[in-house]
Design a protein that fits this description.
With 477 residues, the protein is an all-alpha fold. The protein has one domain. The chain has helices at residues 16-19, 21-26, 46-64, 66-70, 78-81, 88-94, 108-113, 121-137, 143-146, 151-154, 158-189, 198-201, 204-209, 216-230, 234-245, 254-264, 268-292, 294-297, 299-305, 314-320, 327-351, 358-371, 381-391, 395-416, 429-454, 460-476. The model is unreliable at 1-8 and 472-477 (pLDDT under 50).
Length: 477
């Protein structure tokens, strides 16, 4: 049995400052690259350092939302000027959490008063649970009195405005725990490479996007699936994928990567275990919502099916450029492209000299889905983040990719605030440019990962594994 990560011999742990020139250069600000005779700290293990990094970055992300927090999220222009927008406070009232309504209630009065949550059940359950915690922290206000007020008056109620900020704070604490859990999973996915998780923990994409929505819940489950698979636990892998799919759809695509791996390694029983356990976990997670109100449960599916071209997508650029498509045409075209993309990933995975890693295949599949999706919100970068840092654990490539994401993050808020509108009244070309740069940076990382798959000697993880194998053989001799 392999020793746990915290007990690995120091020489067995890959040091980024020794194998990554960019990491070595960046380390000069904190003492320089690790020396040949460096000894590990008794308490500050790599995993604990990474958890501390993630906590600090997440806290800075909370500070970044400070301007909106200080104004109870009600300054419509500052949320774009200060780039501190978050969906959380607006849905607190708009989806009935202010009155502790069950997201999938069939009560006709509640359905007439509040819109149904348009998110998968995992997010809806979390948002509802956070609302209960908020009401408890706020002294359990009387929600029956609120039901007598017009919905618009709730946004002007000082007590409700205070609850909005409390709700964001409570949600932030819980999402912070999800962030730490993600960092823990990533640090322990590869026993000899815990420091790869630092690319997640120190990510600027994490800092700015962590609190835009609830996506970190699915991110933690994807990281859990990567960890479980690395531990040869297919049933747990499936449970993580199933719960992740119940929270956001994209974790389902990991099964495509597992299909390639299991076909190559003749592990079809493991693929069956993953698929069955994922299906069971998904059904079990969806059951309370479905049994409460089938029509409310279906809203997520119908909302996304009939959604038109939206923020960040190539479809929005085409629409604004005069090439309009109906939602049905976009659906058909997107699925055709995505199926073709998956077929290409399948061919690459089967043609590779060595079996690709799950993080590599998962990254390629999810990237293809995002590139042609009807909406590409700024926080969707978090979907790729855990996959990307394990697929290509190199600082240069992560910086190039995330630079495009940061440009888009700023541009989308400026666009929504009207700051990119030309004086002539033409379409905001700079926003189109930001979308193009974002896509180009993502395709750059896709190309690098494809190269690593087809030429494994470029893959840092493969190179380290071969080094460890060589060292073990030398010791055995």
């Amino acid at each position: 049995m392999s020793p746990p990560d915290s007990e690995s011999h120091p020489q067995d742990v890959a040091a980024p400052t020794r194998e990554d020139s960019v990491a070595a250069a960046l380390s000069e600000s904190v003492g320089g690259p690790v020396g040949e005779h460096a000894a590990p700290h008794r308490w500050w293990t790599p995993v604990r350092v990474i958890l501390a990094m993630a906590a600090v970055v997440f806290a800075l992300g909370m500070v970044q939302k400070g301007p909106c927090y200080s104004e109870n999220w009600m300054n419509g222009q500052d949320r774009y000027a200060q780039m501190c927008y978050s969906d959380l406070p607006y849905l607190y009232v708009g989806r009935g959490f202010v009155e502790l309504n069950w997201p999938y209630t069939s009560d006709e009065e509640s359905r007439a008063r509040f819109d149904v949550m348009e998110y998968p059940v995992g997010i809806s359950y979390f948002a509802w649970g956070a609302a209960w915690a908020t009401h408890w922290v706020s002294g359990s206000p009387d929600v029956s009195a609120r039901s007598q007020l017009p919905l618009g008056d709730l946004y002007a109620d000082p007590d409700v405005l205070d609850e909005l900020t409390t709700y964001v704070a409570v949600s932030a604490v819980l999402l912070g725990l999800a962030t730490l859990l993600t960092a823990w999973f990533l640090a322990r996915t590869h026993r000899h490479r815990p420091w790869d998780a630092a690319l997640f923990a120190l990510s600027p994409a994490l800092l700015f996007n962590a609190l835009v929505n609830w996506d970190l819940l699915a991110v933690a489950l994807v990281a859990g699936a990567l960890w479980a698979w690395s531990r040869d636990r297919p049933v747990l892998t499936g449970v993580m994928i199933g719960l992740g799919t119940a929270t956001k759809l994209y974790p389902l695509f990991l099964i495509g990567g597992l299909l390639i791996i299991c076909v190559r390694q003749r592990r079809l029983p493991d693929l069956l275990k993953v698929t069955v356990s994922a299906g069971f976990a998904w059904v079990l997670a969806n059951a309370p919502a479905y049994l409460s109100s089938e029509s409310a449960w279906k809203v997520f599916w119908t909302f996304n099916e009939k959604r038109g071209a939206d923020l960040g997508s190539v479809w929005m650029v085409l629409d604004q450029a005069g090439l309009s498509f109906s939602w049905h045409e976009i659906n058909t075209s997107s699925w055709i492209f995505f199926i073709a993309w998956c077929a290409l990933v399948l061919l690459i995975g089967l043609a590779a000299p060595e079996t690709p890693r799950l993080a590599q295949l998962g990254f390629l599949i999810v990237a293809g889905f995002l590139l042609v999706n009807k909406v590409y919100s700024p926080q969707y970068v978090l979907w790729l983040l855990p996959l990307a840092v394990l697929a290509r654990p190199r600082w240069r490539d992560q910086i190039i990719w995330q630079s495009g994401e940061l440009l888009y993050f700023a541009s989308v808020w400026w666009y929504l605030g009207g700051y990119l509108q030309p004086g002539s009244g033409d379409d905001p070309g700079f926003y189109w440019l930001a979308i193009a740069v974002r896509i180009a940076c993502e395709l750059y990382l896709v190309a690098i990962v494809v190269r690593d798959v087809l030429r494994p000697h470029h893959d840092p993880v493969r190179a380290r594994d071969q080094e460890m194998t060589t060292r073990s053989n030398a010791v055995a001799v």
